[in-house]
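Please decode residue identities from the backbone states below.
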């Protein structure tokens, strides 16, 4: 009975996994996983015990050839990368499948205005900062022009880590509130715009304007296909009656439907990655189009622990291996890192917060939205890895933006909870319609 009561009070399994240390620091577990990946890299473990770090996470392998020796990427590193990418795709699908479309539909205007502010202000401030960094030298490679550097930094400043924000929203009990739904919707729009900016930079840096056109056109084509054809077809999954033998072998999940869902998620991820919008958004849209019901609830119950605590950490470890604090320890680079941090935090917190207040939200709700918008973690690291692999940015800029990501993400949850606690002192709480009396929210729950 106690178990059933706990599950009823906390419908998402991740809310059952809070650790005392994370609570004391005002953090959710995903932040701990992200920081752990950074600590296992060359900046911390490599500085304290380099032999252990190289033994645990070798990056290069020297092999003998007919003409001598050759150095290749170590298979262990490739395995970590593959596991991390699979975790990203599955996690984005789970996030999409949990998205509350009904609450979003009731607040479309507010979500649109705050999303515009969340992309517009960072676009201007990040663009100016990126132009300056190209001029300073050492942050971008030689093939990046001033305007391309501006667009890249603008995308890095504008982005909000949609998967990480979803985790924070779940863990903070904001899933069924206007604050949680609008924060997720703003993050989705801002991330989509950031990916378009990144696709433009990558394509033009390779000398192909066509690549940017394919990214935008392919993304729209995929979205229209999923809305008008994919969604009706996926709706049939909820009506199928599985055979008992199938469900016994998969712990209550019918094999046929499960296989179809995995195929859809992987195909969607492959297509969006092919056109340049990247795999995570294909998986998210696939989850968004899934029919809500008991079958989808079972999928989430089985896949969330595996994805969040086994597969996804591989991505954070891979990102930590590319972060080297020793690259930014000179005075001029530290100053630049400070400027990037201030601009990144102020651009999102100020723009989103003021836009939300202008839309009629209270200062508590508007401030919470601004705070949550700074949770860049996961998506920012994806963007940085793409920029590094495409030969756009140096290790120095990668490290600056990775440090900015950790700090702004670490601050996001405690700052949001400051606003929440102050709101509760007034006898109110965040609810589906905005700020509501605590009694009304408790009765509805």
């Amino acid at each position: 009975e106690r178990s059933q009561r706990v599950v009823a009070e906390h419908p998402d399994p991740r809310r059952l996994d809070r650790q005392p240390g994370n609570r004391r620091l005002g953090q959710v577990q995903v932040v701990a996983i992200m920081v752990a990946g950074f600590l296992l890299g060359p900046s911390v473990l490599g500085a304290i015990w380099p032999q252990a770090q190289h033994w645990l996470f070798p990056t290069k392998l020297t092999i003998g050839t007919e003409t001598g020796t050759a150095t290749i990427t170590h298979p262990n590193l490739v395995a970590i990368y593959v596991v991390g990418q699979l975790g990203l795709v599955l996690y984005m699908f789970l996030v999409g499948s949990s998205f509350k479309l009904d609450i979003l539909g009731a607040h479309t205007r507010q979500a649109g205005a705050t999303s515009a502010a969340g992309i517009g202000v960072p676009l201007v401030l990040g663009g100016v900062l990126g132009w300056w960094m190209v001029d300073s030298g050492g942050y971008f490679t030689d093939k990046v022009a001033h305007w391309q550097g501006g667009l890249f930094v603008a995308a890095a400043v504008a982005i909000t880590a949609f998967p990480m924000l979803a985790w924070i929203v779940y863990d903070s009990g904001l899933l069924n509130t206007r604050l949680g739904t609008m924060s997720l919707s703003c993050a989705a729009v801002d991330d989509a715009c950031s990916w378009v900016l990144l696709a433009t930079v990558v394509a033009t840096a390779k000398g192909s304007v066509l690549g940017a056109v394919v990214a935008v056109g392919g993304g729209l084509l995929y979205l229209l296909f999923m809305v008008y054809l994919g969604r009706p077809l996926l709706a049939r999954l909820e009506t199928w009656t599985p055979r008992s033998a199938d469900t016994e072998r998969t712990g209550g999940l019918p094999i046929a439907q499960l296989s179809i869902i995995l195929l859809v998620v992987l195909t969607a991820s492959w297509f969006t990655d092919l056109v340049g919008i990247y795999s995570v958004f294909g998986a998210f849209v696939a989850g968004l189009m899934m029919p809500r019901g008991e079958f989808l609830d079972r999928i989430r119950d089985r896949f969330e622990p595996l994805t969040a605590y086994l597969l996804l950490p591989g991505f954070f470890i891979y990102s930590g291996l590319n972060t080297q604090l020793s690259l930014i320890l000179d005075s001029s680079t530290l100053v630049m890192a400070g400027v990037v941090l201030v601009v990144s935090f102020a651009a999102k917190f100020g723009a989103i917060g003021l836009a939300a207040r202008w839309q009629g939200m209270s200062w508590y709700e508007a401030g919470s939205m601004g705070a949550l918008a700074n949770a860049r973690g996961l998506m920012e690291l994806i963007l940085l890895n793409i920029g590094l692999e495409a030969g756009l940015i140096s290790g120095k800029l990668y490290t600056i933006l990775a440090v900015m990501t950790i700090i702004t993400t670490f601050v996001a949850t405690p700052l949001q909870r400051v606003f929440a606690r102050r709101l509760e002192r007034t006898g109110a709480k965040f609810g589906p319609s905005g700020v509501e009396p605590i009694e009304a929210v408790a009765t509805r729950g």
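Observation: The longest strand covers residues 60-65.
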